[in-house]
TrEMBL record:
<feature type="domain" description="GAF">
    <location>
        <begin position="626"/>
        <end position="768"/>
    </location>
</feature>
<feature type="transmembrane region" description="Helical">
    <location>
        <begin position="300"/>
        <end position="318"/>
    </location>
</feature>
<dbReference type="InterPro" id="IPR003018">
    <property type="entry name" value="GAF"/>
</dbReference>
<dbReference type="Pfam" id="PF01590">
    <property type="entry name" value="GAF"/>
</dbReference>
<feature type="transmembrane region" description="Helical">
    <location>
        <begin position="28"/>
        <end position="47"/>
    </location>
</feature>
<dbReference type="InterPro" id="IPR002549">
    <property type="entry name" value="AI-2E-like"/>
</dbReference>
<keyword id="KW-1133">Transmembrane helix</keyword>
<dbReference type="GO" id="GO:0016020">
    <property type="term" value="C:membrane"/>
</dbReference>
<keyword id="KW-0812">Transmembrane</keyword>
<feature type="transmembrane region" description="Helical">
    <location>
        <begin position="338"/>
        <end position="363"/>
    </location>
</feature>
<feature type="transmembrane region" description="Helical">
    <location>
        <begin position="182"/>
        <end position="200"/>
    </location>
</feature>
<dbReference type="InterPro" id="IPR029016">
    <property type="entry name" value="GAF-like_dom_sf"/>
</dbReference>
<keyword id="KW-0472">Membrane</keyword>
<feature type="transmembrane region" description="Helical">
    <location>
        <begin position="80"/>
        <end position="103"/>
    </location>
</feature>
<dbReference type="Pfam" id="PF01594">
    <property type="entry name" value="AI-2E_transport"/>
</dbReference>
<feature type="transmembrane region" description="Helical">
    <location>
        <begin position="273"/>
        <end position="293"/>
    </location>
</feature>
<feature type="transmembrane region" description="Helical">
    <location>
        <begin position="53"/>
        <end position="73"/>
    </location>
</feature>
Length: 795
């Protein structure tokens, strides 16, 4: 029998996390190509500065002048006429300013020789008081040699020969005088021509830039609009800030008595265009002149005090109020940009550094390949709050994590902190537990979370007696993160007046299960961070049911996939409720412990001006149905704009909700005397919460919000998502809402919230005929953070 060859032994190769694998060769090539490209761009900026500086100046000036040109075009002037008018105005303004300031400068230069005696007297006084050497008395005289001390010339000594230069021709003298001024004049001329052309052919230039940016036309258009808006606003605010500094400076110097007050006020306003060093340079001239004019020291001291006061007011009051977030740049990026552009283009680069960096920031926000620029230059935090706290825990810096948590709680509440920050921190820890974390990191996170929770519980203890008597036991389902989440939930419940306690995951062991000591009607909330908690949850539920049949069980699944929540798999376990967030858990547990009280708490309270609001609604006449056709058109447009299943416009009367506009036919009771409008009882109206609060309401998933999970109107319309912006009249009265609804859960970003508020303003204009503004700035952000479920409020 032939011998059998040995069977090869199979080996299992364990591969670590994806990020632990050595980088691929093409990654290094891409990095090298990026560095080479950056070096080429920087060299091109440096060696091409003679051409690029005029272009940059021209385009930035055109950004500032474009709003004025557009206004003249809207008035009725042709575009070329509007551009000529604006450029003529600018030239006349600059020319007049040069004439006035030139006259002051000439007058001041004529008076300067008369100040020499004052300067000499002050130097003598300083030398006498501080015993300064006589070198300060006459600096030039201290280095001059005494002619008598020179040795007498002898007959044999060489004679000094003086070369007398040839007298210059008038043309040569004129060339020497004009040469230094030709380059600035040529630069100004080039800038003037480019500004004229940029204003005249703005549409063509915009089209060419869009073609150069390529890619997504929507994204490129948004990038150009954002860059233009930010730069225009920044330049306008810069002019206002500088004028608000220069005018008081001129008036103050005139009151003090410093000669050429108007000149120094204009210099101060102009020099503030130069970041950082400009104000210092502009302060030297009036202080030096006050030193030369006044024999005493009062004028100098008053001048210094004036400059300090104006700087403090401008830097701490005027600039923060006017600038706000017009640039979106961080303080560090502003300083780095000023250094970079000054090194490339000199003083002009320093002046242009902020607008140019704004352009780079906008490119970083809208071009995926340049997203790193947004991270480097932007003023928005690079890490969100949960990631910051988690990183501090990894770094074994629990104290800073506690400081961040305390600051977050002070701006909101403990419940909102647990819901919006605490659970996401635990989710990050759960995801990294097996993929990236080392044993040391896991220990740091566990210890840090324990310290953080102890600090929050000690700092914010529950006050007052419980509002119900049903005990709620929050138990970690499997491991430590489950237990921490249970402790967070128990603390949040206690703060809401619900008696609760937390137990560790080890409590659910076979030998420890009896220690729970549950009784009839009590609630057990099992906390899980597992993405597939079916197997452990089924076992625990069976054991709990077997030992305490009448105990109510709730599953808190903090990280379960949506398809698992929507199926019947978990419902077959015999649980009463399934929750996915702290807010939802509090709402559902409150309803289980005290149904009547929870139901009353979920009803929207009428606003304080209820009678005035109802009277204002009926005065519009919209309930007659006459405006329904126009409002239906707006609703259809809203459904199309937001790409949702349904859009409705509602008006809340004293006891009923009227659907005054809708994008499609809806089931429900209609009323013939109102033009066939759909009428809903007010207690079933989701929009009543918008009217009650007066703010935009966004519910990302109505099934996960206890207030709306059983709402009959939403179920009848098969809606899982709701967003409503208030219909607010010019008098501030809210009588209804502009609403969009969808079959699937979704979210809205900040820009979409503003669009919704704009369409709400269009509805009010259609109903009342009043223009209440369409920017949506006030209504874009929900003021009540609890109004948004499962979605952070845009900042």
């Amino acid at each position: 029998m032939p011998a059998m060859s040995p069977k090869p032994i199979e080996q299992t190769v364990l591969v670590g996390p994806a990020d632990a694998v050595d980088p691929k060769p093409h990654d290094a090539v891409r990095m090298a190509a990026t560095l080479v490209s950056a070096a080429i761009i920087i060299c091109a900026l440096y060696f091409g500065r003679d051409v690029l500086i005029p272009l940059a100046c021209a385009f930035l000036i055109s950004f500032a002048l474009h709003p004025l040109v557009s206004w003249l075009v809207r008035v009725g002037l042709p575009r070329i006429g509007a551009v000529i008018v604006v450029m003529t105005m600018i030239l006349v303004l600059i020319g007049g300013l040069v004439v006035v300031l030139g006259a002051q400068l000439r007058s001041l230069s004529e008076e300067l020789p008369t100040y020499q005696s004052t300067i000499r007297a002050k130097i003598d006084d300083m030398r006498g008081q501080f015993k300064v050497p006589a070198v300060l008395d006459d600096p030039m005289g201290a280095v001059e040699e005494d002619p008598k001390s020179e040795p007498a010339a002898t007959a044999d000594a060489p004679q000094r020969v003086e070369v007398v230069p040839r007298s210059k021709e008038p043309i040569e003298m004129a060339s020497e005088w004009l040469a230094p001024s030709l380059q600035p004049l040529a630069m100004a001329g080039i800038v003037f021509v480019f500004v004229f052309l940029a204003l005249l052919d703005r549409s063509d230039l915009r089209d060419r830039l869009l073609r150069l940016l390529g890619g997504n036309l929507h994204r490129s258009t948004d990038a150009l609009e954002e860059a233009g808006t930010r730069i225009s606003k920044y330049l306008l605010m810069q002019v206002i800030v500088n004028v608000s500094y220069g005018v008081p400076m001129a008036i103050g110097l005139w009151v003090i008595g410093v000669p050429g007050a108007m000149l120094w006020g204009a210099v101060a306003a102009i020099m503030r265009f130069v970041p950082y060093v400009g104000p210092l340079i502009s302060a030297v001239f009036p202080i030096g002149l006050a030193f030369a004019v006044d024999p005493g020291w009062s004028m100098v001291l008053w001048t210094i005090a004036l400059i300090l006061v104006l700087e403090l007011i401008s830097n701490n009051i005027v600039e923060p109020v006017l600038y706000g977030t017009s640039t979106g740049l961080s303080a560090m990026s502003l300083i780095a940009a000023a250094t970079f552009w000054t090194a490339l283009w000199g003083p002009v680069g320093l002046i242009l550094s902020t607008p140019l960096t704004v352009c780079l920031l906008v490119l970083g926000k809208n071009v995926p390949q340049l997203r790193f620029l947004d991270t480097i230059l932007g003023s928005m935090p690079a890490l969100d709050t949960p990631t910051r706290i988690y990183q501090r825990l990894i770094a074994d810096d629990a104290d800073e994590a506690i400081d961040i948590a305390t600051t977050e709680i002070e701006t909101s509440s403990v419940k909102e902190f647990y819901n919006d920050v605490g659970i996401p921190v635990l989710r990050l820890a759960s995801e990294d537990h097996l993929r990236h974390a080392t044993p040391e990191h896991r220990l740091r996170v566990a210890n840090g979370l324990e310290e953080l929770l102890d600090e929050v519980r000690e700092e914010f203890p529950p006050d007052g007696d419980p509002i119900v008597h049903t005990r709620i036991l929050c138990v970690g389902g499997k491991w430590e993160m489950d237990t921490v989440a249970a402790e967070m939930l128990a603390h949040a419940l206690e703060l809401e007046g619900l008696p609760a306690s937390a137990r560790a995951a080890s409590t659910l062991g076979t030998s420890n299960l009896a220690d729970l000591e549950l009784s009839k009607g009590e609630i057990v909330c099992l906390s899980y961070f597992s993405a597939n908690p079916i197997v452990p949850a089924r076992q625990l539920c069976r054991r709990l049911r077997r030992k305490w049949p009448e105990v109510q069980i709730v599953l808190a699944l903090w990280d379960a996939p949506a398809e698992l929540l929507e199926g019947d798999t978990l419902r077959d376990l015999g649980v009463r409720e399934i929750v996915t967030s702290i807010d939802e858990a509090i709402g559902r547990l409150h309803r289980m412990a005290a149904p009547e009280e929870a139901e009353a708490a979920h009803v929207a309270e009428p606003p304080e001006n209820e009678a005035e609001r109802v009277a204002a609604l009926r005065a519009t006449g919209v309930l007659s149905g006459d405006a329904k056709e126009g409002l239906d058109a707006i609703a259809i447009r809203a459904a199309d704009v937001f790409n949702v299943d349904l859009a409705v416009i509602s008006a809340i009367d004293a006891s009923e909700e009227f659907i005054v506009g809708q994008s499609r036919k809806l089931p429900g009771d209609t009323r013939a005397e109102c033009g066939g409008m759909l009428v809903i009882p007010r207690e079933d109206a989701v929009c009543d919460h918008v009217v009650s609060g007066g703010d935009t309401l966004v519910v990302a998933d109505t099934d996960r919000d206890p207030r709306f999970a059983d709402n009959p109107t939403l179920k009848m319309w098969n809606a899982r998502f709701y967003a409503g912006a208030p219909l607010r009249t010019a008098d501030g009265v809210v009588f209804g809402a502009m609403c969009i609804l969808d079959k699937e859960p979704r979210t809205l970003d900040e820009q979409e919230l503003k669009v919704l508020a704009t369409m709400a303003a269009d509805v009010v204009a259609e109903i009342t005929g009043d223009d209440v503004g369409g920017d949506g700035a006030e209504a874009a952000e929900p003021k009540d953070p609890t109004a948004t479920v499962g979605q952070p409020v845009p900042e």
